[in-house]
Amino acid sequence: MPSKTNTALPGLLLIACMLFFSPAFAQKMVSGRVLNQTDNSPIASATIQIKGTRGAAVSGADGSFTIKVPNDNSTLVISAIGFESVEYPVAGRSTLGDISLKVGNNTLNDVIVTGYTAQKKKDITGSVAIVNVDEMKQTPAGTVENMLQGQAAGVTVINSGAPGGGSNFRIRGITSLGNTDPLIIIDGIRAGINDINPDDIESIQVLKDAGAAAIYGVSGSNGVIIVTTKKGRGKAKISYDGYVGSQQPLKGYNLANPQETANAIWAQQINDGLPPSNVQYGNGATPVLPDYITPTNGHAGDSMTSPSKYVFDPGGLDDNRITKANKAGTNWWKTIFSPAIMQQHTLSASGSTEKTNYFFSINYLDQKGTLLGTYLKRYGVRANTVFNVKDHIRVGENAYVFYKQNPGFTNQNEGNTISYSYREQPIIPIYDIEGNFAGTGSKGLGNSQNPYADAVRSLNNKSNDWQMVGNVFAEVDFLKHFTARTQFGGNVDNYYYWYFTYTGYENAEGNTNSNGYTESSGYNSNWTYTNTLKYSNTFGNHSIAVLLGQEANSFYGRSLSASRGTYYTTDPNFWTLNAGAPASQTNSGGVYTNNTLSSYFGRLDYTYNDKYIIALTMRRDGSSYFGSAVQYGNFPSVTGAWRISSEDFMKDVTWINDLKIRGGWGKLGSLSNVPLYNQYTLFNQFASNSYYDITGASTSSQLGLYNSQLAGPATTWEKDVTTNLGFDATILSNKLDVSFDWYNKSINGLLFRPSVPATVGGATPPFINLGNITNKGVELSVTYHGQAGRDVKFDIGGEISAYRNKILALAGGNKYVDEFSAGSSRINAFSRAEIGHSIGEFFGYKVVGYFQDSADIAKSPTQDGAYPGLFKYADINHSGAIGDSDRTFIGNPNPKFTYGFNLHVAYKAFDVSAFFYGSYGNSVFNYIKYWIDFPQVFEGAISKDAVYNSWRPDNLNPKVPRLSTKANFSNTQQVNSWYVESGSYLRLKQLQIGYTLPKSVLQQFGIDKMRFYVQGTNLFTITKYTGLDPELQASDLGNNSNFGIDFGNYPSNQKSFYVGAQLTF
Amino acid sequence: MKRKYIYISAPLALAAVVILFACNKKFLNRQPIGLLSPTTLSNAHGVQSMLIGAYSLLDGEGGNNSGWGSAASNWTYGDVAADNAYKGSTPSDQGDVQNLQLWNANSANGYPPQKWDAMYDGIQRANDVLRTLKAANANDMSASDTILARAQAVFLRAFYHFELVRVFKHIPFVDESVTFAANDYNVPNVDGSGNFINPMPKIEADFQYAMQYLPATWNGDKGRANKYAAEAFLAKCYMYDQNYSGAIPLLGDLMVNGETASGDRYALQKNYFNNFNADPTAKNTSESVFAAQMSVNDGSAAATNQQGNPNGNYGDALNFPYNGGPGACCGFDNPSQDLADAYKTDPATGLPLLDGSFETGGHVIARGTWAGTLDPRIDFVMGRPGIPYLDWGPHPGDAWIRDTLNDGHFNPKKNVYALSQKTTLADNSSTYWAAVELTADNVNLIRYSDVMLWMAECQVQTSGDLGTAEALVDSVRSRAANPAYWTYINNDGTAPTFNATSYSYTQKPGTTIPADNYKIGLYPTGTFAANGAAYALKAIQFERRLEFAMEGQRFFDLQRWDFGSPGSMAAVLNNYVKVTAPLRPAFIGATFVQGKSELFPIPQNQIDIENEQGKINLKQNPGY
Prior knowledge:
The structure holds two protein chains of two kinds. By secondary structure, chain A is mainly beta.
């Protein structure tokens, strides 16, 4: 079926080329100079374009230019960033003299890269957010992803404090239960945004609706972020941009000291009517802190506390690792968190001549995390060049190579060092008396691990990553109105990491496991080959642009990993695979990416008299993920705009400078999280799943196979239909820019793995097209450019985004799916995806209060474990008994809206900027309370609330239920609304004060610009959330079905202070 | 002219490229790498490998949703939910098991779904074999091999179904016609009138087929099901059906002709304890009618960061002493005080205290705390303070208990390993969280003493020969009565040498003494006849508890006895609550509900999925 169209297309192309074939005109050279009207200073890098053609030149440092025009009647369009563009007829002259441009706040003529092509901002009909790169860069962060928070309406970014850690990245709500990361296009190549050097970025555009993104077809449904890196422009210059600063850790959790902890353990037992006792704290009316925790409940002078009795034999019966009790309490948080330095430096050289332009930069980033052992180090080099080989031919390349070291950190997990810092009891010291680590191996102190030991043991683990991202391209202008472009590019990523697993001898669990060493490597590669043909022309009031293109993408990745155990020594110099015990060796490897995408696309832009604009796009995508019968999908869009301000009847409305109403409809596709080979029935072999020791040998097993995947041959594209309405306005003498969008994005045929009954067997069912989700939302951004007096200029900008997400249907006809979290599942699923509700909503019992006494229990619905002081749940179904069906929705982690707010004030040589970011109306599930408010949960550290504000007959409105040794339905076992808190917050993300040295001073040193600044970030956060930071990522960034849950998040609201400098000469 | 070439060549080049890709259909055809398609497997080799895959779920692990709730030993259902063991650890750790222990689990409890899902995974793996046989036979598989493969597949399918029957009773029978592609997977457990369908006839038919076509022995493959394994399971099914007269000929044949897959005639091992030894020479002995084979250091543990559970005895990985000894985690499945007390014997006769008096008059705890006599099997079943714990030295007492208030004073012993077996018969992977708790200990699914005691039971139930019944019980007891294999301790309280190959303690006259005051006697000839059938049945039932304690059998024994005598299970377990609550406060208020608690709840999510279209396919068990 597809072949018919495919073979027809090139034929059509050729015919189209022939039709427009016409002889070339005689040509002539024209020269001139571009000046700033305000002070007659030359304008470098102004674009001089011949109207209606592709021909263009750029002015030099002195503002002068020469350009070859086709004939004497040509008109030049002269534009420069920050100025209003003018049209200038050649009128037979060869010297045009000085052309003055008026300073303009109006950015409507800025040329915006919008995917395979560039448009003037004023001609854009889709919903495109233009990120102010300078503002974005003011937030110091290791990754561009982090910086984008609050910078574009409709873009939600949730960060953590982990250096190099990913973010939850969403454009226009949650469009999938799986990954919602947008497509990132860097200089036309699919690449990751995380490791690009922010100082290399020229512009970032976010294509939000189908009208804008449909040209990316199947890849565009989560939105598209177009990043363009810098080109050389004007005279040669060298720039330096850098900062250095320090991040300050938070204070940590509010935990009880050892005596308070012991008191709470006593209260637990007394409340249960038991005679209180504890192996460490003795027995009797009050608990007594021991002098030693090994020997258990040891006291000074006991014979076994004599250092001569020290025996190191973990797990053995004679073991006596003498450990002093830390009666003052160990602050585990402080053992692993400390202030951390962050610095970034970029040195770049750039320039352009008539024949070439070049941009070259080197970059160094060193971001230490406040958490011991976390860091991101990156060294990057970029070289972008373009050569104008002939008047009509340009060739060029963009290349970025970097090396980074970024040991991973599993954020939001009950088993990481942050979680251990609130789980390890404070009476445990860091070390025993011999300097070996101390821990829960001392009896009766729970099962946490020594977080400091864990962190220290990770310090020699290494993670290396080399990547090369880039492309080569050639462009040919021909037949006056045509440009053909061919581009080949891609991304090669090699990674290599190793880690050592120590025997955590000091812990209660796993203290006799053998040590081990694992070494892993792999590579990803992808390439994109793109060919486009553009035609643009103007006939009178009609302006038309056509783009036709073809693209092929290929992705491939494989990895291998090997390990051995039982190392003779833990000395890092000994860490090679050969050094371990051969009997313990394992190895594994496989292909984890292997797919292709073949695409054809076209675009038509038509403008009548600058008033009516219409754009049509069409993309046809074929993917190897789907069976051949359903491989291809067509993704059209139509958008239009009406510039009302150009109508005659608006002439008198002088306060409106520009007003454009936009609207559009489009269909996008998505592969969502479809697994590789979804179309096939597959069998796999996996030692732990299907091998069996059929001979009874005890130490070997035979190969067995199992059905691993069921086929979904009919599964095809997810279809996302977006309707968008909006307007862009520039009013009040170009002082106020307003942009507004309303959208309705519905995902139909959601790609979804259906829940099938167990009777199907263990094979994974295929993704099928079932389930619908809608996201409706509004976005508003407003910018005001103001001036107060002669010297004070200011800009105030804000954006606000709101979406409402609703599940309309689920796969397999299911009404709901319980969504488990990767972080922990000790009290079952935190959230439920149910028809009529938003993705991510928390689901559990609604706590209406605490049972006050037995009379209260008697008159309340029957509830398992009911006891005075424990949770009383709402009887949602009025059955008189609390059961499964009384669970209900108890909170929504989706914000009602998020907002960002930028402020810039310039006064003479000083400038001040500030950026606020906030989220309103989202709930947070404070799961940390499970660990620290219930002393019976793994006998770990506990909160001051549990000690001082738990339910007692004299404290009927406490924060924590009655302390008990029991774990049951009415206290620890269920997800309930007691954990849910408001997650609204407002944060001053950054405040910066800069000073630019006067030009007069600098000129004598040959320096063009020099600016210094001081900056503070996260100076305050206003929130009612009682945990550390209400900004909470999902525990698995690739899974958006549950989020807003606090498992001990690496906080992203740590204060930091920086000094920086920018220098150009 | 030159320029014109450029004008023409550019679009031509573009067109050429477009054609290139348009014609290259292969570009969108990416074949799976490292995975196999059904066509590749439609041959003898494929079928045999799929069959191994179907066997591999006998250990309960590595399948869909498998975990501790699908353990081959059934420790959560068989012992914790009965009167043999406490959940262990701290109350909130694996809280779902706490609810099983106290019989207040609801249909959302996370453990029963593990069993449900993993067993149906095994069933469909067996069905995959059956579905592939025809094509394989058409290719290169001989007719005789086809029948052997079919017989093994139906045996496994029947086994997995039977496991489900024991836990849930009312379960859908899934044969090879049920597939995702056929969209017939909402298999009901009720008929058109809403009455439960009894799956047992189909299960028994499968076992019968297997019994008919399986060979008596397998060349070297000790883990394969043979004719007698199928016969034993068929007999076991009949025991659950109270079809005692049907069981007798099968059991009789097994006792006369039965042999293991490696050709050993069924017999009791001399050393009871050796049935729980991970050593390859001690596994698959004459007593092992059928067992789930376990293996360690075979690469399965290191790979678990990707999927599945390792091939060692993962199901019992939690059931180790806490913070010391083998494993060092996690302190679950602690033998109950009631079980320890059940090993008291009459000081004069050495017989068990069938009258229930073992629950009064003081407790058996540490070595020597009970002044009276004990059945020596107690110290193979549980680690007790002061008693040698294999070669780990004398059990240190509460130092190995996580929470003495809830967990009591004992640790499990049958599933652990000896110190000298560490790193060879326990896993030595480092990338796995609790490698040292993966052992090569087989889980015995049917031991020969089971066959003998069933026969004894059948004799009583069919008003048969009480003398035969008594002789069978006595032969089980006399094996335990052999002092050569008791637990010994040195005079000074230290542990004597333990031989991990023979699983026995070295005795040195004058230095070693029995570790506690053991006395076990046989029922004097004629005791059963003299005291009547009710007495005989009680003696057999009591013997089963002592013989199979901590092997996941107790709950299901009580359950099948209850089917024949409704209310008996509730009586036993509510009495257990009565004696346990004063010691273990968690039991205060716990109630075993007659007519409900005999079965576990069918997983709610399965009911939701199967009934989603409006028709009731899956009906919940009564009371849930």
